[in-house]
From TrEMBL:
Residues 3-263 form the CTP synthase N-terminal domain. CTP binds at residues 13, 146-148, 186-191, 222. UTP binds at residues 13, 186-191, 222. Pathway: Pyrimidine metabolism; CTP biosynthesis via de novo pathway; CTP from UDP: step 2/2. This is CTP synthase. The lineage of its organism: Bacteria, Candidatus Nealsoniibacteriota. GO terms for cellular component: cytoophidium; cytosol.
């Protein structure tokens, strides 16, 4: 039987529940346990796909094409495990299932209610996720007290009655409050948040307390007395310099050991040596590097989360300290800003705003031989720039930005034109690409293979509607753009573009430019702190030279 760990948040949002769950997953996996994390999002969207990065941060994509909350990115990076759509569901998805069942007559005669129909569906999803694993780690989005989260908390309360109580553990993530202006630490919000959780029928077994300073014994006594959580299960999480330090800190605070004791697991030895190595590299950089990230969603700190993390991974791998300079593609001072940097990344995005700035930045990178990496929209902008400035197709554009352009160099495929719905209809999830032997891409992805045998396939995750228009393949190539990754013919699991060769990776010859490469995919989703993605690694390596 699997163990169930539920993680709720108290007081305010944004205190690091996602990182806590990711860290806990790592601590358990490092003890040889098989874990699966699940994130529950209490909003009515069916998935994160239609949500604006300005509001919610990036949309993360899994191999199987789920558009998910960004916490899944933390889980994948920390636990080093590819997740599926089973690891994220929303209120919207739960209601959709229940109401669809009602329409086909599954509950015939009954009144459909939140209890038991909605809560049953929630429990079913959690139990399904737990199959074949030692621990299922469930994070409930939002904060206890939100109306939206009530059915989920209720489902968890019920689930406790259905399973062996010793397989059930509840963690509440809270923060010490520091009053203004004395900066005195206060525990009252923690006490009240636990009271609220208790009012809903859940008593936390552990508290994880975010804090600026170590929690005093006096405060620990008080928290324990008011919340009935044992002292040794009150885990302090002091602000850390790097995200990747957090699992090590929580391990020092004995979170993993205490959880094993709770479940009666003896002699589970922990091995965090790989992770220690990462921290060692972060703490001992040999060089500093400045990378410009040219985008428009710069006001939300997490809008480009996976790109930022992938850049950090590459810096860690190359023993460099990285400074990521967010560059607003809607401002006019681009060239001045770009003068002082070592590499340029143009990440993904939607809509016309900021496009011309991205194209200007790419032109600057191409002409000044600045290492450049384009991601999804970044590839599309690089193709537009090349079309306009090298192929002399004046006004070339994507039909996303100018439906009437004379040269629709980026466009829908004919088979996509009938698609009217916005949700879940992009080219999503993992797709293969064949790499061109001898290309920069082939050398980056397969550094150990000999020159001739580099005709290899790769898989990367996608999330886009538009493609390089096949009508322009020839002219682009004739003018010197290399298509170093092409989708293979007849890949069976694609509903798009069967029998069509789509451009997956472009590059400039290395004679002309030291590092100019862009991909239609989102390689940032597959980068890991201990295994930087080859395209990011190549960017940082070249920039360091
Ligand atoms: N807007 C572009 C498209 O839909 C690129 C999307 C992206 O960068 N993820 O094709």
């Amino acid at each position: 039987m699997s163990k169930f760990i539920f993680v709720t948040g108290g007081i305010v949002s944004g205190i690091g529940k996602g990182i806590t769950v990711a860290s806990l997953g790592l601590l358990l996996k490092s003890r040889g346990l098989k874990v699966i994390p699940v994130k529950i999002d209490p909003y009515l969207n069916q998935d994160a796909g239609t949500m604006n990065p300005f509001q919610h941060g990036e949309v993360f994509v899994t191999d199987d094409g789920a558009e998910t909350d960004l916490d899944l990115g933390h889980y994948e990076r920390f636990i080093d495990q590819n997740l599926t759509q089973a690891s994220n569901f929303t209120t919207g998805a739960v209601y959709q299932t229940v109401t669809a069942q009602e329409r086909v007559g599954e509950f015939l005669g009954n009144t459909i209610q939140i209890i038991p129909h909605v809560t049953d569906e929630i429990k079913k999803r959690i139990k399904n996720a737990s199959k074949g694993v030692d621990v299922v780690l469930v994070e409930i989005g939002g904060t206890v007290g939100d109306i939206e989260a009530l059915p989920f908390i209720e489902a968890i309360r019920q689930l406790k009655q259905e399973i062996n109580p010793s397989d059930f553990l509840c963690i509440h993530v809270v923060k010490i409050d520091y009053v203004y202006p004395s900066d005195e630490a206060k525990t009252k919000p923690i006490q009240q948040s636990v009271q609220m959780l208790r009012g809903l029928g859940l008593q936390p077994d552990f508290l994880i307390c975010r804090c600026k300073r170590p929690i005093t014994q006096e405060h620990r006594n008080k928290i324990s007395l008011f919340t009935s959580v044992r002292q040794e299960r009150i885990i302090q999480a002091i602000d850390a310099g790097s995200l990747y330090q957090i699992p090590i800190n929580l391990e020092k605070e004995k979170l993993g050991t205490q959880i094993c004791q709770f479940f009666g697991w003896k002699n589970k030895k922990v091995n965090l040596s790989q992770w220690q190595k990462i921290i060692g590299k972060i703490e001992n950089p040999k060089a500093t590097i400045r990378v410009a990230m040219v985008g428009k969603y710069l006001h939300h700190p997490d809008a480009y989360l996976s790109v930022v993390e992938a850049l950090k991974h590459a810096a860690i791998q190359n023993l460099a300290k990285i400074e990521i300079i967010p560059v607003d593609s809607e401002k006019n001072n681009l060239q001045a800003v770009l003068k002082k940097i070592d590499a340029i990344v143009v990440p993904g995005g939607f809509g016309i705003r900021g496009i011309e700035g991205k194209i200007t930045a790419i032109k600057y990178a191409r002409e000044n031989k600045i290492p450049f990496l384009g991601l999804c929209l970044g590839l599309q902008c690089a193709v537009i720039e090349f079309g306009r400035d090298v192929c002399r197709l004046k006004g070339a554009n994507s039909t996303e930005f100018n439906p009437k352009t004379k040269y629709p160099i980026i466009d829908y495929l004919p088979e996509q034109r009938h698609i009217a719905k916005k949700g879940g209809t992009m080219r999503l999830g993992q797709y293969p690409a064949k790499l061109k032997p001898g290309s920069l891409a082939a050398r980056l992805y397969f550094p150990s293979l000999s020159h001739v045998s580099r005709l290899q396939s790769i898989f990367e995750r996608h999330r886009h509607r538009y493609e390089v228009n096949p009508k322009y393949h020839q002219i682009l190539q004739k003018n010197g753009l290399i298509f170093s990754g092409i989708s293979p013919n007849n890949f069976v699991f694609s509903r798009f573009a069967r029998n069509k060769k789509l451009v997956e990776i472009i590059e400039l010859p290395q004679k002309i430019h030291p590092y100019f490469i862009a991909t239609q995919a989102h390689p940032e989703f597959k980068s890991r702190p201990n295994r930087a993605h080859p395209l990011f690694d190549g960017l940082i390596k070249t920039a360091l030279k």
